[in-house]
Amino acid sequence: MRVSSTKKIRFSVIACLVALGLSSQGKAQTVPNPLPPISTEADRPDITATDPNDSEVRLGRENSILNDKQVKLLTDPQMVARVNRIGREIAVIANKQVVPSLWGNSQIKPFDYTFKIVDDKDVNAYSLPGGFIYVNKGLLDMVRSDDELAGVLAHEVAHAAHHHMIKLLKEQNKLNKVLLPLQLAALAMIIGGQSGGNGRGTNDAANLMTGLNLYSIARLNSYGVEAEKDADHTGMIYLTKTKYNPVGLYSFMIRLAKLERSHNGIDLGIYRTHPPGVERVAAAEAELSLLKIPIALGEVDPTLRTNVFLTKTEAGTEIAEVKMRDVVMCRVIGTDSMNAEQRGATISKRLNSLLDSNLQPFEIRASRDNTVTLVRGTSLLTQADALAQKITVAEMTQKLAEAVVRVKQKRAIDTGL
Predict the structure, then answer these.
(1) Backbone angles phi, psi at 114, to 5 degrees
(2) What is the pLDDT of residues 371-387, one digit of tens each?
(3) Torsion-angle region of 295 (φ positive above 0: left; ψ -120 to 50: alpha; else: beta)
(4) CA distance 58 to 52
């Protein structure tokens, strides 16, 4: 995630951090098809942490020390425990699972990953070489489940595991070797033009210098974009090896893309360091499809799933309300085989699945004999449910259809989809 412009981090490595970002606009990004083959070292009992004197680890540790002096770290036991518990589960996978890199280097170096929380309201997370991961409090406030947090952490771990910062620094060094002689020549032309009174030559040299600088920015930022794509892809693969639902990363990306659109939606062009949010969402959706993982947003975002509340009718009969946020979807009573709460839970689960598969109001209708409410041709609510509420099956059906409209509107506002 991109470090906010309000940050006061001064040292060079952090200044070019690559991590999960807010920036997003543009055409749909594609995912390699088929996915690169994945190998594993899961059966190796002898995997040990990389030598702390390793140059990559040392670089990350030194910059981590500098970073810690310039930010305020949170020490809340529950928050720290949650981030570390999830982060370390993913780190175990990263230290033994070889995922071919789309950019960077997939060679495994078993890092001793550390996870820290920064007291900052910006929605941000970042990764340093050697496995030093930072998550802002603002991001923790935005995630809605452990699955979503796992998605963010998997992305950041992927940056470290695929050595993106080292790759970026190497590319920067190579670029400097090519551009430095040209920049020095342009500078000499500027100085010579000024001393010799050659205004046109000075302007040409200045234009050349500007062009070289813009080229450098464009090249380095393009590397950052490729690193982000790789971290999204690799993080998704890591998640498939854990108990966490990979849809959590997709779900969080959706809200990031919406947040990005609310920040003016300016096209940054060559200054862009991250793929546009809409591209990342499209790529994640395509990857989930390739992995044959159903996109059930309600499973990773509790605000997008229904809940059951038990109450009683005026006659004292137990009745279960199935609600999403403040919208009552339906009310049901018990049957011979299930009490009201059990039946409510069954219908709640079914409604979640229907909503995740884009249920439309026209797919809800009363049966011809007005004895049941049908959803996609299958019975959902009964005449007994309607009688308990002192309404007709037609009225009950209409209420459900109207509730679906309101819920879909709320989902659209929340996700931007």
Answers:
(1) -125, 145
(2) 999 999 999 999 999 99
(3) beta
(4) 7
Distance CA 397, CA 365 (A): 6
* Cβ atoms of 209 and 190 closer than 8 Å: yes
64 and 120 inside one domain: yes
What is the helix (H) or strand (E) element at residue 380, kind and residue range? Answer: strand 378-382
Q: Which domain holds residue 249?
A: 12-167+213-298
- Are residues 29 and 139 both part of a single domain? yes
Residue 51 per-residue DSSP state: P
Answer yes or no: do 139 and 119 share one domain. Answer: yes
In one-letter notation, the amino acid at residue 95 is: N
Cβ contact 372:330 at 8 Å: no
Does one domain contain both 273 and 335?
Answer: no
Q: d(Cα 56, Cα 129) in Å, to the nearest integer?
A: 6
Look at residues 240, 271, 298 and tell me which one is the last residue of a structural domain.
298
306: left (phi over 0), alpha (psi -120 to 50) or beta: beta
Residues 41-71: pLDDT tens digits?
444 444 566 677 888 999 999 999 999 999 9
How far, in Å, CA of 57 to CA of 73, rounded? 21
